[in-house]
What we know:
- 85% of the residues lie in helices and 0% in strands.
- It has helices at residues 3-11, 13-34, 40-61.
- The longest helix has 22 residues, at 13-34.
- It is elongated, with a radius of gyration of 15 Å.
- The chain starts with a helix and ends with a helix.
Amino acid sequence: xxxxxxxxxxxxxxxxxxxxxxxxxxxxxxxxxxxxxxxxxxxxxxxxxxxxxxxxxxxxxx
Length: 62
């Protein structure tokens, strides 16, 4: 990656973090709907693992 691309991505870091947090919130709400008594921290960890697995799959294709 060129240094210009790296600089540009650094500018978007906070936005990327917010986007991933929004994804976690989206799937947390879905899990709470399906499993009303679910533990939020455990659920969040599982969601992060699922997001990481999805990112790994995408990364393998690049």
